[in-house]
């Protein structure tokens, strides 16, 4: 993919505006997980090391126009950046009339979604942002699927546009897994509903050698295969799609599952064969034999893409299938790529992150890239490369 990269540009004494994804979870004013901030550091540090004046733009949450959005201020993020960068980070609330920033300085603009035109890709806002910099850097893969002023429109007006280290790494990892994968390519797909992954499945079935399924989405596929899934979550309106998938792709279905008659922290899990599920019980996880078979397939893969847990892993008694998949993905010699909020949460829960080759910071963007869609934030950089 032809995109300019920050590492290839001259930055000395230039004003560099970095669109980062600093949308971190907060408990009041306390950041509960700073993973996205840490992921943005290499790009910021590179710009500083090369003598640039650095401006950072990000959103936080979903502010309501005209509402009280004080709780979504980026002030806690500015403080955390100050700690991690070990240099002052000034939060700027009023920048519309211009902004001075000197080489070696870092300034963070207040939550860009406080600007009403941001999510509308307002070109006046995009032009105003571009006027603040000599180089525009998109490093926010998590918002690359959104055509917003700070992710798309700004590239029309910026003198130079490029991808930051994080965005470039995301693109490289996804292209490695999808465009020219080492075979066999195994896709591991889970999550609660097949509807949210339908386009992913349709695109992957043309490139993946095998798709391993779990979670609620597997229930609809089992039902399409004629299995009585008891009281499990299913999407009957997608049975025809599920049948098409089974007929046109290599999708081995779970041979055993864990079930429960109620779903809470005190519920018991029962091991059942997939074709022997009582009507009052619901599938909550893949079973041990299915996990063993899936693990064997993963071990023999050349490339693995993982999105979605195998069950309700938040409850310990329903987590074993997802844990075994996490272990298998961590242990394989294949190139491994994982993404999606629940997937990352599972990887962190089972302490597998250091053994997976690439963990994507994107949720919706990760899925849309796998679906084969063009992402506006990346498309804008291609246009200006």
Features of this protein?
single chain, 385 residues, alpha/beta, six-stranded parallel sheet, elongated
Write the layout of secondary structure elements.
Layout: E1 15-19, E2 26-27, E3 30-31, H1 35-49, E4 53-57, H2 75-85, E5 89-92, E6 106-109, H3 123-130, E7 135-138, E8 160-163, H4 165-178, E9 185-189, H5 198-204, E10 210-213, H6 215-224, H7 239-248, E11 256-260, E12 270-273, E13 282-286, H8 288-299, E14 303-307, H9 320-331, E15 335-338, H10 341-349, E16 358-359, H11 364-370, H12 376-383
Parallel strand pairs: 1-4, 1-7, 4-6, 5-6, 7-8, 9-10, 9-14, 14-15, 15-16
Antiparallel strand pairs: 2-3, 11-12, 11-13
Helix pairs in contact: 1-2, 6-7, 8-9
Notes on the protein architecture:
With 385 residues, the protein is an alpha/beta fold. It has 12 helices and 16 strands. The protein has helices spanning 35-49, 75-85, 123-130, 165-178, 198-204, 215-224, 239-248, 288-299, 320-331, 341-349, 364-370, 376-383; strands at residues 15-19, 26-27, 30-31, 53-57, 89-92, 106-109, 135-138, 160-163, 185-189, 210-213, 256-260, 270-273, 282-286, 303-307, 335-338, 358-359. A 6-stranded parallel β-sheet has the order 5-6-4-1-7-8. Strand 2 (26-27) and strand 3 (30-31) form a beta hairpin. Helix 1 packs across helix 2, helix 6 crosses helix 7 and helix 8 runs parallel beside helix 9. The longest helix is centred in the first third of the chain and has 15 residues, at 35-49. The radius of gyration is 23 Å and the shape is elongated.
């Amino acid at each position: 993919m032809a995109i300019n990269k920050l590492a290839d540009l001259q930055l000395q004494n230039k004003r560099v505006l970095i669109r980062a994804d600093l949308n971190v979870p907060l408990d009041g004013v306390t950041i509960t997980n700073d993973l996205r901030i840490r992921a943005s550091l290499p790009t910021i540090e590179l710009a500083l090391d090369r003598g640039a004046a650095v401006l950072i733009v990000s959103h936080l949450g979903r502010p309501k126009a005209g509402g009280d959005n004080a709780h979504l201020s980026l002030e806690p993020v500015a403080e955390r950046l100050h700690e991690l960068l070990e240099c002052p980070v000034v939060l700027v609330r009023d920048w519309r009339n211009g902004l001075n920033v000197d080489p070696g300085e870092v300034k963070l603009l207040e939550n860009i979604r406080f600007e009403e035109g941001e999510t509308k890709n307002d070109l006046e806002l995009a032009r105003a942002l571009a006027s603040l910099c000599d180089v525009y850097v998109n490093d926010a893969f998590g918002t690359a699927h959104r055509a917003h002023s700070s992710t798309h429109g700004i590239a029309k007006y910026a003198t130079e546009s490029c991808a930051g280290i994080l965005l470039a790494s995301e693109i490289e990892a996804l292209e490695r897994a999808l465009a020219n994968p080492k075979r066999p390519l195994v896709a591991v797909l889970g999550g609660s509903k097949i509807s949210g992954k339908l386009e992913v499945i349709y695109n992957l079935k043309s490139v993946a050698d095998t798709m391993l399924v779990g979670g609620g989405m597997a229930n609809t596929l089992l039902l399409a295969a004629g299995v009585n899934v008891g009281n499990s979550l299913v999407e009957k309106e997608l049975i025809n799609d599920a049948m098409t998938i089974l007929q046109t792709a290599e999708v081995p279905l779970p041979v055993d599952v864990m079930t429960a008659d109620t779903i809470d922290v005190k519920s018991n899990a029962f091991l059942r064969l997939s074709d022997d599920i009582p009507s009052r019980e619901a599938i909550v996880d893949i079973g041990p034999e299915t996990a063993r078979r899936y693990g064997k397939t993963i071990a023999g893969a050349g490339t693995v893409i993982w999105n979605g847990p195998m069950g309700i892993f938040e409850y310990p008694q329903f987590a074993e299938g997802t844990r075994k998949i996490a272990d298998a993905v961590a242990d394989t010699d294949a190139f491994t790529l994982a993404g999606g909020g629940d997937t990352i949460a599972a990887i962190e829960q089972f302490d597998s992150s250091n053994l997976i080759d690439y963990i994507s910071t994107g949720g919706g963007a990760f899925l849309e890239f796998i679906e084969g869609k063009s992402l506006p934030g990346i498309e804008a950089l291609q246009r200006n490369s």
